[in-house]
Design a protein that fits this description.
Blueprint: E1 2-7, H1 17-27, E2 36-40, H2 50-59, E3 65-68, H3 70-79, E4 85-88, E5 109-112, H4 116-130, E6 136-141, H5 148-161, E7 165-170, H6 177-187, E8 191-194, H7 198-202, H8 204-214, E9 218-220, H9 223-227, E10 232-235, H10 238-253, E11 270-274, H11 275-280, H12 287-292, E12 295-297
Helix pairs in contact: 1-10, 2-3, 4-5, 6-8
């Protein structure tokens, strides 16, 4: 049997990440327990555990490592040069040194990226469109996330273009989120851009509560935040990325080298708006923005 370990240390509140990958494997003819063995490991949002988990899987001599997020992907790359690695949803794969280039990754890593930095400009623009009076915004960032530095720079450039002042606000743990929003309130910002991050994903409901309590319109990168009460999101279908990961696993198990498989970038993005949250915030979303939304949550 083939062994495909999965390290879903990725954006939480998406309980079907792993099942989506399993679904994709079935679509390619791999039957769990018969033609493939799936070993599930999770770091429970504790980045320091990732090297240990990778080491455990390397000792098992698995055939493929499927990892989620930039931190997990980097831990896997540092842990093995021999086992093929399929990374799902890391942003800025070239910038953080995960692959040499997107077309020919080289080495033992390939997978799917979700264009985290490239989307920041559009996310900022949409937040400004939703809040016409926006003159200052907070950018919620986790300094431990290796992809956030380029995204902070992108947010600053986008905000300047729109005549908005962007202020980075840091939170390394869920316990620091209250302090972060208290700081936003003291600074009197008019909205916040929440950068995608595993810890922020795990705290999606809490983030929505804090934003509502602070009266802050917030933009997120994933729909899951809007489902739990966030105002709006613009980004990719994360679950679809996990389903697509199975295509890479299938090719590698059939002999393809990961370094020869281009890193796939999404071409479809969705704008989701929570109208109930907008009403709670006393915010009237412009009709032009509502018409462009892919989904409106009542």
């Amino acid at each position: 049997m083939r062994g495909v370990p999965v390290l879903p240390k990725s954006v939480p509140n998406h309980p079907h990440e792993s099942p989506k990958t399993h679904q994709g494997l079935r679509e390619h003819g791999w039957v769990e327990g018969k033609t493939i063995v799936v070993i599930l490991k999770t770091a429970q949002y504790k980045s320091e555990r990732l090297p240990e988990l990778v080491a455990e899987l390397v000792l098992l001599k698995v055939d493929v490592l499927v990892v989620a997020t930039a931190e997990a992907a980097l831990a896997a790359k540092h842990g093995t040069r021999a086992i093929p690695i399929v990374a799902v949803d890391p942003a800025d794969t070239v910038a953080i040194g995960l692959v040499a280039n997107l077309a020919r990754p080289g080495g033992n890593v390939t997978g799917l990226s979700y264009l985290g930095t490239e989307l920041v400009d559009k996310q900022t623009e949409l937040l400004k469109e939703a809040v016409a009076t926006l003159s200052g915004m907070a950018v919620l960032t986790n300094p431990a996330n290796p992809t956030h530095s380029p995204r902070l720079r992108a947010a600053a450039v986008a905000a300047q273009r729109l005549g908005v002042k962007a202020e980075p606000i840091e939170a390394r743990t869920q316990g620091e989120l209250d302090k972060a929003f208290a700081k936003m309130t003291r600074m009197r910002v008019g909205g916040t851009l929440v950068l995608t991050d595993p810890m922020f994903g795990a705290a999606a409901g809490r983030l929505a509560q804090l934003a509502a309590k602070s009266g802050l319109p917030a933009m997120y990168g994933f729909k899951s935040h809007v489902i739990t009460g966030g105002l709006m999101s613009y980004g990719v279908d994360l679950l679809e990325l996990f389903r697509r990961a199975a295509t890479y696993v299938d090719k590698i198990l059939k002999g393809a080298k990961p370094g020869d498989l281009p890193v796939e970038q999404p071409t479809k993005f969705e704008l989701v708006i929570n109208l109930k949250t907008a009403k709670t915030l006393g915010l009237t979303i412009p009709p032009s923005l509502l018409l462009r939304a892919d989904e409106l949550i009542q």
